[in-house]
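Question: does this match?
>
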Amino acid sequence: MSIFLRKFASNKSPSIQSSNGVIGKHVRLEEHGNTVFCCAFSSESETHEIELATAAYDGTTRIWDVARCTQSTSKKSKKILKGNSGGVWCCVYSLNSHILVSGCSKGTLCAYSRGKYQILGRQDLAHGPNAVFSASMHDRNDVLATGGGDKRLKLWRLDDADSATPGISALSTLSGHSGDVVSCCFKPNTDLVVSGSEDRHVRVWDINTNECLQTLIGHTAEVCACSFDRDGSMLATASSDKTVRIWDSRQKNRCVQTITGHKASVYSCTFRKCSYDLLASASQDGSVAIWDPRNWKCCQVIRQHQGEVVGLAFHPHGTLLATGSADMAVNLYFVRSDGPQEADYVDFAGDWDKDEPTSPSNGSSPQVPGSSSLRPASGPMVMEVATEFSPSIRPIDDELDPISSFNGRAQLGKQASVVRQMESLNSDDPRLDLVSPDVRKELEDELALQQIVLEQAMERKHRDGWKVRDADPEDVEELRVLLKKFYLEVNPSKLTRIEAIVQDYADRGGGPTEREALNLDLRAVYG
């Protein structure tokens, strides 16, 4: 299923705020056919130059020769990997970069040998049938951590082609989160790994004992990304609450800074781990911000993508920054080797209200078009009133109801909403034997379609910060109709109670609390 391609309509051109800042000109790589969720650089070796891997929801992981892409006119990927069975959420290179691992929406982990990029091994149900959202490698051995839609963090061992059993083997499962684990990272020079979850918590684990040593509480929405600085003293976590929090391990992981400025969910954050440290953050609002860890001031704002920015990675030498976006492109920015100067600092919050430069720094990025000229890759058009950095036109799947969202506000499409309310009713329900064959067939078909919509919607909501907040009148009406059709034939005496429950849900606004109460009430009526 296709993730929407979000385009942002604005009267402003793409820009790199702070002309003399640490970020300079960029090159744009355009081959993916859907949202680019992850970027990962390899290390350098005697036999291989540094490469960039990019994972996208088009089901592919692409390998780029960094030197060729930045030093010549050729902007073509050198390899296209298609071992995953669904949209690819994450990718990471092993310690020595001999292996590349990718994880996808259908729970598959694939390990590829670097060079020819042949499949060394795969785990088809790494997190059951749930998505593999994140992956991180230990910096001293071949232990891989993955976070998934089963609310667990898992540890794996990677063995390269020279070992007796090349591929991926399971080590242990770390349980404790009450929501999907959407981010993870190892602490440098230790056996500690950190996980961020939809439950809003950050957990610190010891991989030797599999124990949770500490839970970091502070974010008010899911934790989309986490990253340590080069010595492991500072941990940055990015969240759908529009903030990045800094936790200091020298102060028992106390939160020492809350970074604000982004206008929507912060999907990614990463430290530059060489020479002068930098922190980069990427957001649903279409911007990438660069922060100075010496004072946590913003020293640059980049708006070159035409959609949400999700993937983010610094080159191992710190000279390049890669970004992946819902506009299906990967941007490679040249990064200054020294640290920010006083003149580089910008007012990120105030910057949203200022006029920006009329052209990008190098002219290589296409101009942000007006809403009338935006063309999605495929699918019917959905038009909305265009405001600054709001979705203007997006392609949607021809067969499925879309989920629309912006800045954390969302509502389920009609079909998905009905299933959400009727989660205790499914095609195996024995009460379907009580209804006529025609009605049963209609219900079974409807429920099967809606379950597919729901599962795919839940898969993609994690990175985009979609939350169920508002009741839609059409949702409520469709729920009412389907429930009535079912219960008229099963037990008409329950209809009055069911309609009262649904009406009460609509009257109270249909927020998360009311939604849970609705589910409990319906379960009681179902008996």
Observations:
- The two ends are 35 Å apart (CA to CA).
- The longest strand covers residues 167-175.
- The first helix runs from residue 66 to 71.
